[in-house]
Amino acid sequence: MVEGGGSDSLLFLTDEQLKKGIEAMFFAYRGFTADPDRILENYAYGRAHHRAIHFINRSPQTTVNNLLSILGVTKQSLNRVLRRLIDDGLVESRVGKRDKRERHLVLTQKGAALEAELSEAQRSRMRAAFRAVGPDAVTGFRQVLEAMMDVDMRHHFSLLKETE
Amino acid sequence: MVEGGGSDSLLFLTDEQLKKGIEAMFFAYRGFTADPDRILENYAYGRAHHRAIHFINRSPQTTVNNLLSILGVTKQSLNRVLRRLIDDGLVESRVGKRDKRERHLVLTQKGAALEAELSEAQRSRMRAAFRAVGPDAVTGFRQVLEAMMDVDMRHHFSLLKETE
DNA sequence: TTGGAAAGTCAACAAGGCTGACATAAAATC
DNA sequence: GATTTTATGTCAGCCTTGTTGACTTTCCAA
C-alpha cells in the first residue's frame, strides 16, 4: 500500500498498519489470558482474582489503596475479590505498624502456590513467543507497549523495571 | 537464535523479563481500550459492541457464524449485542443469496460513522506509540504479538495481513 | 478535638459472559 | 420425498465483575 512520505518509509504509520496493530493486540491479549483462565476455572476464580494475586505477589505488603490505584477499579469491586481470597486463605491482611488504618496484603503459602501456577502458565507462553522471535523483537515489543500505556500506568510499570 | 546460555545473552528469557512482558501487556491493553471506552459511554455501548462493529467493518458481508468464531463468544451473547446494533440502525442483516439460512452483516452509514470515530481514537494512540519508537520496534511488537496468539486466532489475523 | 484518610460493608444495578432448551427455515443427504 | 444437519434466533436463568451511593469504624494529623 503505497503512500506519500517520500522514499524513507513512514509506511509503518499507515492506517492499514495501525489497524493491524490493533487486531494484533486483540488476538494476542486473548492468547495471553487463555492459559490462566483455564487454570482459574479449576478453583472457581476469575481474572479479577488473578490480577489481585499477581500484584500482591509483585509488591508484598502493598496497601489496599495502592492496589486500587494499580487495578483501577472501585474499592467495592476489589473488596469483593479480596474478601474471598482472604477467606479462602490465599491472602493475608496485616494491620499497618506505622499507620494502623492501613492493611498490608501478602500472599500466604497457598496463595503463592496458585500465583506460581498461574504465572508459570503465562510465562510459558510468553517465553515461547520471545524465544521464537528473538531479543530485538522483544525490545521493540516492550517499547511499543510502554508507549501505549496511559502516563500514570507507565509509572506503575516503571516501578517494576527499577528492580532490574 | 543463539542458545546455550554462555556469555551471549539469553537474559531476555529470564523470569524477570517475562514478568515484565506480562505486566506490559496488562497496562498497555488498558491504554489500548481506554479511548474507545470513553467514546462508547456517550452512546451507552460497551466493548462488546465495539468488537462487533470492528469486525463487521473489517469483513463486510461476514456471516454470524464467522463473527462468532472470530469473537469466541456464544451466539446468545453475540446476539444480544447484534440485536441492539441492528435495532439501533448501525448494522444491517441481509439474507444470504446462495444460502438463505445465512445472514450477512454490514455496517450502515450510521454504523460506519461510529466505527470511524472509535477507530480513529484507537489508531491515534497506536500512531503516537509507533511514531515514538520507530519502525523496527513496531516490527518486533507485531512479531511477538503474533507469536503469542492461539494458532486458530493467528489464522484470523493473517487473513487481514493478506490485504497488504 | 476535630477533620480527613484508609478501609470495610450493604444494597442495588448493569454489562456481558455462560448453559440449556427450543423454534424455524433452508440446505444437504439418504 | 423424507430425514438430518446447519444457520440463526430467542427465552430463561445464572455468574462474575464492574458501577454508584450511603454509612461505619478506626485512626492519623493538624
What does this structure look like?
2 copies of one chain form a homodimer. The first copy, chain A, is mainly α and 164 residues long. Helices cover 68% and strands 7% of the residues of chain A. Chain A contains 7 helices and 3 strands, in the order H-H-E-H-H-E-E-H-H-H. A 3-stranded antiparallel sheet of chain A has the order 1-3-2. In chain A, strand 2 and strand 3 form a beta hairpin. The interface between A and B is large, with 64 and 63 residues. The first copy, chain A, binds a DNA duplex (30 and 30 nucleotides) through helix 4.
Can you give keywords for this protein?
164 residues; homodimer; 3-stranded antiparallel sheet; mainly alpha; disordered N terminus; Arc Repressor Mutant, subunit A; DNA-binding
How much helicity do the residues of chain A have?
A: 55-70%
Based on secondary structure, the structural category of chain A is: mainly alpha
Low-confidence runs of at least 5 consecutive residues of chain A: 1-5
- Intertermini distance of chain A: 41 Å
Strand order of the largest sheet of chain A: 1-3-2
Task: Give the number of DSSP strands of chain A.
Answer: 3
User: Biggest interface: chains and residue counts?
Assistant: A-B, 64 and 63 residues
- Taken as a percent bin, the fraction of beta residues of chain A is 5-15%
Q: What's the CATH topology name of chain A?
A: Arc Repressor Mutant, subunit A
Count of individual helical segments of chain A: 7
- Determine the oligomeric state from the structure: homodimer
- Overall tally of domains of chain A: 1
Rg of chain A, Cα atoms, Å? 19 Å
Q: What kind of sheet is the major sheet of chain A?
A: 3 strands, antiparallel
Q: SSE order of chain A, as H and E?
A: HHEHHEEHHH
